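Entry for zinc ion complex. Fields follow.
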Amino acid sequence: MMKYNETGKIGYMTIDDAPHNNFIERIDFFESKEIKALWFCNGVRMLDMKDELIYAIKKGHILGNHFYDHVNASSLTLEEIKSQIESTDQLLEQVYELAYIKRPFHAFRFPYLNNGDRAKYRHTNGHDEKVKGIQDILKNLGYTLPYCDGVTYQWYKEAGFFDCINMDVTYDSFDWCHNSPHAVAGYESIEAILERVNEEAPGNGRGLNDATSNEIILMHAYTDMAIFKGLTERMLAKGIRFELPVYKK
Ligand SMILES: [Zn+2]
């Protein structure tokens, strides 16, 4: 049966700042919808949540690296960045070992999507020494860009997001705007964030109704449950099917 706004789109659900409050409830909610997600974790949040993370891994969800602390890469030295990545990587190794499950791939996302060079925010420039240095750190630790089939946005390609190891997003849900002093004007309320899924600006990160590209979706692990569930349900109602990215060398 065709649904309204049926696009045949695949969504790759990625959740940042994990694990956070209601973590098990969020996993179970996704399970009830047959959704597996890629959860980018801050090492500092993992310390007291190992059992919960093992639960998520065993259900088929994937954990990625989001630095130890939630800090801007542009404010750190390369050595500090290396330490942020390595310490979190060790915790990820540990929880996968405890779960007796092999890590499907090593995935990384920058806090604030800040790739280390604020001036070229989000854009990877191979000529910038620090940006390149971070890519080398990731590469040496076995990190690869998770492969998301059918993501074809030209703006995304031009931003260099297929040429770097860190994973970016095509649909930022703006869930972080809820009750935030840093909110983008007009997106402070739950309803505004939920309604945003219907905006049509595929060249500008709002393409959920656009049939031409699949979608890398960003939500946060701390988001109010009404937003977390509401966004997911609205995307499902559009006919979006959720899949996990896969390893590709
Ligand atoms: Zn984050």
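NOTE: The two ends are 37 Å apart (CA to CA).
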